[in-house]
Amino acid sequence: MSNREIWFVTGSQHLYGPKVLAEVTSNSSAIVDGLNKTAQLPAPIVCKPTVKTPEEIHSVCQQANNDPNCAGLILWMHTFSPAKMWIAGLSELVKPWLHLHTQFHAKLPWSEINMNYMNTHQSAHGDREFGFIGTRMRKERKVVVGHWQAPHVIDQINGWTRAALGWAESQSLKVARFGDNMRHVAVTEGDKVAAQIAFGYQVHAFGVGDLVEVVNSVSEQEAKSQLEQYQQDYVIADDVWKDSHAYNMLVNEAKLELGMEKFLVDGGFGAFTNCFENLTGLTGLPGLATQRLMSKGFGYGGEGDWKTSAMVRIMKVMGEGRDGGCSFMEDYTYNFDGVDQVLGAHMLEICPSIAKEKPRLEVHRHTIGVKCDVARLLFTAKAGPSICVSPIDMGNRFRIIVNEVNTVEQPEGTPNLPVASALWEPKPNLNVAAAAWIYAGGAHHSAYSQAVTTDMIEDFAEMAGVETVIIDENTELRQFKNELRQSAAYYALKQGV
Ligand code: MN
Predict the structure, then answer these.
(1) Residue 327 Cα, ligand 1 centroid: separation in angstroms?
(2) In whole numbers, what is the pLDDT of the chain averaged over residues?
(3) What is the pLDDT of residues 201-246, one digit of tens each?
(4) Distance 304 CA to ligand 1 centre (A)
(5) Is the dihedral of CA 104, 107, 108, 113 positive or negative?
(6) Distance, CA 157 to ligand 1 centroid (Å)?
C-alpha cells in the first residue's frame, strides 16, 4: 500500500492561450501541495500536466490504467474543457475517479473582477460540461463540491482516497480458505467467480492437511519465544504460567499463529477463513491465533465466510492509520432492557484492534461444534460510532449492507462469558434496523469498524458497481422496502441479458 498514489489531472483547452494555461498549471500544483500538506491523506496526490486535447486526455487515462501505483484520479476542469474531448479517455479509464468541483480562489474579488478573471476561473460551468459526459456515459464517480480548503471537501477527498485504496487492495487480494463452509449455512456461500468479476479478489481453498503440515513445522523454540510477545501485549494471570496444561494451550496457539501466518505470507494471502467442522489434524479451533492475525491486518471470516473475510481485509486497508480498528463480528444476543441493544461476539474470533482496554489472555473450554481448551483474548469494544457491514450474494449480483450503530459501554461485567464482545445500539433503533437488515438479507456475520465510515463503503461499492443499502438514523421501513424493490429493478436492467 505504501507506493499507492492518487493522480490529480486538470482539464482545459488551447482556447485561452499560454498565459492562462500557465496560471491553470500553477494553481493546480498549489492545490495539490495544499492537499498533501493539510489533508492527512493516506496516499500522496501527484500533480499531472494539464490536459488540453483529446490525445493528451486519452494518454493520461491509459497511463493511469497501466500504472499499478495509481489507485485513482482526481479530475478538475479549472476552465472549460469541451467534454467530447474526454470520451475516448473515459471510455478506457478503469481506475476510480473523483470529480472535484472546486475553484482556486475562495472569495470573489468584487472590485477587481473582469472578464479575464471570469475566463480563468470558470469551473462553475466547465465542471458542468464535464459532469454531463460522465453521466451521459453512465460512469460511476464521486462528485465533491466546494472550495478545496474547506474541511468538508478535504474530508470527502480523504474518505474517497481510502475507498480507492480499499478498491486497489480488492483487485489484488487473495483469500485462503482452510476447509469449507459450515454445513447447511446459506449466507456464507456464494459465487466466487462472480465475486472475482465484481471485486477482483480471488478465493482459494486448501485441505486442512496443507495447513497442518506448516503448523507442525513450527519449532517448540519459535513457539516459546512467541509467548514472550504475548506477555508484553496482554494481561495474563500467573496461574496460566504455573499450570502446565494452560501453558501447553498457549504453545498450541503460538504454533497455530506462526503456522497460519507463514502459510498466508508465503502464498501472498491477505485474508482467510476456517471452519470448526474442518479441523482434522489441528489442536483445535484457532482462537488467540486468529485474533492476532486479524490485528496484524489479515481479513478473517468464520465458518468459511470468504465474503466477510475479504471485506474485513479491505476495510482494514481503508481504515489504516485511523483510530477504531476493524473486526469480524456476529450479532450474537440481544438486551431488550430499556434501549434495545445487540451484544456482538463470536465463538472466539474478535479482533483486539477494537478493544477498549488491554486484552486478557485466558484459557477456556470451547464447547460449540468441537470440544477443546483454547487460549483466547477477552476484552470489550471501545465505545463510539461504528458500522456493521455485510456483503451478500443475491444470486444474480452482490449487495453490501451497512448499519450505523453506536457502540456503548457494557453496564456490567460478564465474568462467565469467555469471549470478547461489543455492545451496540443500532440506528435508528433495533426495531427498524434489524427489520431493515433482515428485509435486505444481511448476514449474521459482519465486518465491524470504528475507523471506516459509511461514505467510504458507499464509494467502494460504487467503484465495484455494487448496490449499497444503508441503515442509519433516517431509515424508515416503508421507504426502505421500496428502495429495495426499485434497486432490484435497476440492477436487473443494468446487468442486461
Ligand atoms: Mn459465525
Answers:
(1) 13
(2) 97
(3) 999 999 999 999 999 999 999 999 999 999 999 999 999 999 999 9
(4) 9
(5) negative
(6) 35
Residues 279 and 412: their CA atoms lie apart, in Å, by 35
Is the pLDDT reported for residue 323 higher than 90?
yes
Distance between CA atoms of 7 and 322, rounded to whole angstroms? Answer: 23
Ligand 1 centroid vs 176 CA: distance in angstroms? Answer: 17
Round to whole Å and give the CA distance between 76 and 189: 42
Burial code of 368-384, b = ≥16 C-beta within 10 A, e = fewer? eeeebbbbbbbbbbbbe
Ligand 1 centroid to Cα of residue 347, in Å, is: 7
Give me the pLDDT at residue 369, please: 83
For residue 2, the CA-to-ligand 1 centroid distance in Å is 33
Q: Residue 452 C-alpha to ligand 1 middle, in angstroms?
A: 22
Confidence check: pLDDT of 2 > 80: no
Report the separation in Å between the CA atom of 182 and the middle of ligand 1, taken as the mean of its atom positions. 9
State mean pLDDT over 52-75. 98
pTM, rounded to two decimals: 0.97
Which residues are close to ligand 1, an ion, with C-beta < 5 A? 302-303, 330
User: Ligand 1 centroid to 346 CA: how many Å?
Assistant: 6
Q: What average pLDDT does range 276-296 have in this prediction?
A: 96
CA of 445 to the centre of ligand 1 (A): 6
**Rounded to the nearest whole angstrom, what is the distance from the C-alpha of residue 348 to the centroid of ligand 1?**
10
- Sign of the alpha-carbon torsion through 148, 154, 158, 159: negative
Domains by residue range for the chain, with CATH: 5-171 (3.40.50.10940), 173-495 (no CATH)
